[in-house]
Amino acid sequence: MTPRHGQAAGRPALAARMGGLSPSAIGSVLRLGDRSDVISLAGGLPAREASECPEAAAVLGPILGEHPTGLDYGDTNGLPTLREWIAGYLRADLGADSEPDDVVVVHGAQQGIDLVCKALLDPGDVVVVDRPSYIGALQVFRLFQAEVRAVPLADDPELGELTEALAHGLRPRLLYTVPNYSNPSGAVLTASQRRRLAGLAERYGFLLVEDDPYRELWLTDERPSAPALTALTDRSVHLGSFSKILFPGCRIGYLTGPPAVMSAITLVRQAADLGNSELLQRMVLALLTQDGFLDRRLDRLRALYRERRDALASALSRHLPGAAFRPPEGGFFLWATLGPGLDSALLLPSALKHGVSYVPGAAFYPSRPEPSTARLAFSCLPPEQAGEAAARLARALGGARAD
Ligand code: PMP
């Protein structure tokens, strides 16, 4: 008898699907931020100052006063009044044709990706992703034993490579994209790329998965105008999240899509966890409906992240003239190519020795990585530390060149 995956003396056998997972890629990335002697450009988290929310404590008391039992199981699809707020936001801000019944509240966009895959993917199905792509989504696609095909999207103005692959018989089930301020590249899809994607999804019958947690964190002077995929085609599922605009610990995001997909999502959702905490949903709704709260918070976050992005970009230009990068127009990440012939994964131990961390770009490619790339998160980098972080990085690179 062939042993099951992972079966060895004294170790439990694991499901075959576990074979595709690398040991906690996300966990090892987050742990790089833990050392006090290291300035971390690794963890892609909101700034601590950004997650502070004294208003949350103030709204929780009255909610608990009104519901002394701490509330019951709620509607599996989410608190109806919160879904109403979300549908209103999707209509007003994204131009989506959304009704509360089309919205499912989930435990963050991450659970949204998982539920979409659970409802729609069979082992061996093809999922197209951008090159590079969000590591947390790659983990889920592997877990569902998808064949992940990375194709440049943001870097291909006409989407020529994707168009050609489809014309030559590529038949994806899903195409996953982070269209605004992507993790890790910071890239934004242009309006014409979005229209092309919508056209290709309709022509070839695949579903677009639009993961949009950074949408409101634009750092440009004006709110960007490119349409959301969900406003362009019914062949799309849209994922949103309050993690980056409120705080990740609320674990509240949402999912919307065509009715047939949403019915399937509802079923797998029931089987998964019966729904979000009603207490936290009421807290989020109370915050969102407080007069001026969201606008004030978003103004504050945009100012904070704009300052951090500018500080890191200017420090890198001063200390690392050989690195190539484009300061992103929003989000948390600056994607850099450190220099010709450099391998950012090999360089990481030396960077840590010099007291700075980042995520090697290779983690974000399911195949054929670009070794010189690195994800530098500015979200948790106080502006006054940007110069020191870049100087340490330059010393680590200088050492590597001298070796
Ligand atoms: N998608 C992307 C692109 C992300 O960057 C993240 C967070 N790092 C997530 C999803 C997960 O977010 P949430 O907290 O909403 O689950």
From TrEMBL:
A Pfam family that the UniProt record links to this protein: Aminotran_1_2
Alphabetized UniProt keyword annotations: Aminotransferase, Pyridoxal phosphate, Transferase
Domain Aminotransferase class I/classII large per the UniProt entry, residue ranges: 37-393
InterPro entries in the cross-refs: Aminotransferase_I/II_large (IPR004839), Class-I_PLP-dep_aminotransf (IPR050859), PyrdxlP-dep_Trfase (IPR015424), PyrdxlP-dep_Trfase_major (IPR015421), PyrdxlP-dep_Trfase_small (IPR015422)
Cofactor: pyridoxal 5'-phosphate
Molecular function GO terms recorded: transaminase activity
Presence of the UniProt keyword Transferase in the record: yes
CDD domains assigned: AAT_like
Descriptive protein name: PLP-dependent aminotransferase family protein
Provenance organism: Streptomyces johnsoniae
